[in-house]
Amino acid sequence: SAATLTPTSPVTLTWDNGQGLLFKRRIALDANYMFTIEDTVQNNTGSAVTLYPYAVVARAGEPKHEANWILHEGLIGVLNEVLQDETYTDMRDRDAKELKFESTGGWLGITDKYWMATIIPPQKEKFTGRFSYSKSATGEAFRGDYLLGPRNVAAGKTETVTHHIFAGAKVISLIEKYESELGIERFSMTMDWGWFSFFTYWIFWTLSKFYQLVGNFGVAI
């Protein structure tokens, strides 16, 4: 494994918990914004153990942004085949301060106007997804996380789970590419086309095609 993470050289992190469990995390990055995280645990305890794979994306405080009733910013995900989006204010004003969803397939994370960070579990597994908000003396925190089902690891055996993390710009061609190639359920719903999406998406699509033909946005428009 390389010492520096690049699109052609993944890195592997190793941790021994001192009680017989050896954890390895292999982190790979493609040429754009998608990380592949392969977590492996080796059970050297001498007896079976049960572990629960977990992932979280968190934001400390609400970022500065312009109020926009058309474009969504905050927590977002597709859970149980339904788009779920909660603004920072939505989460702050909730009595329970958290939302839980049971799902098979999907994703969740935090989105800005142009950027997002999303965690993507194995798409054929059941998981519990959650949006949550907390406040302490150090400030506010907004989180999206998921918990997979139990992994029963026999003595002397290993178990591996692969997650994905998208952390980058919301470029529709990339989003649709990942949705198709990785089988991510409705990943293109990370893009917010506003209330008139049935119209605005096709305007964008047409403009994009003309730009590919002429190579000039002015002419394409």
Provide a descriptive summary of the structure in words.
- The chain has 221 residues and is of the alpha+beta class.
- Helix content is 17%, strand content 46%.
- The chain has 4 helices and 14 strands.
- The chain has helices at residues 88-93, 172-181, 197-214, 217-220; strands at residues 11-16, 21-29, 34-43, 49-51, 54-60, 74-79, 82-87, 98-104, 106-111, 115-120, 126-136, 139-148, 151-153, 158-169.
- The strands form 3 sheets. The protein has an 8-stranded antiparallel sheet with strand order 1-2-3-14-10-9-6-7. A 4-stranded antiparallel sheet has the order 5-12-11-8.
- It is globular, with a radius of gyration of 20 Å.
Question: Could you name the key traits of this structure?
Answer:
221 residues; alpha+beta; four-stranded antiparallel sheet; 4 helices; 14 strands; globular
